[in-house]
């Protein structure tokens, strides 16, 4: 688990402030998923274990930070009428 944690932290630290090109963030995330794919699949198939060792909160934080790098910080959703 430690190499995945280290690489994911490096990724969100690298792009935590955003990126000029979102494709760069997605490419780096894709590389992380390929590199650690077997472990990631195993972890996601056992969410109970992830929660027991406190990784759910860490993974959700990574996801929130990568989302912010891609689209900016969370804002209020547009009104329903504006989504059509």
Description of the structure:
The protein is mainly α and about 80 residues long. It contains five helices and no strands. Helix 1 runs antiparallel to helix 2 (about 20-35) and helix 1 packs parallel to helix 5 (about 55-70). The longest helix has 17 residues, at about 55-70. The termini are far apart. The model has no long low-confidence stretch (mean pLDDT about 80).
Q: What are its keywords?
A:
84 residues, 0% strand, mainly alpha
Report a brief summary of the structure.
The protein has five helices and no strands. It is an all-alpha fold. The model has no long low-confidence stretch (mean pLDDT 81).
Question: Which helices and strands appear, and what pairs or packs with what?
Answer:
Blueprint: H1 2-15, H2 22-35, H3 37-44, H4 47-52, H5 55-71
Content-based structural category: mainly alpha
Low-confidence stretches: none
* Tally of separate domains: 1
Approximate helicity band: over 70%
């Amino acid at each position: 688990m430690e190499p995945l944690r280290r690489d994911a932290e490096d990724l969100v630290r690298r792009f935590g402030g955003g990126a000029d090109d979102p494709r760069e963030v997605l490419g780096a995330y894709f590389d992380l998923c390929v590199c650690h794919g077997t472990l990631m699949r195993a972890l996601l198939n056992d969410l109970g274990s992830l929660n027991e060792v406190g990784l759910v909160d860490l993974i959700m934080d990574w996801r929130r930070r990568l989302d912010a790098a891609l689209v900016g910080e969370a804002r209020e959703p547009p009104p329903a009428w504006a989504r059509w």
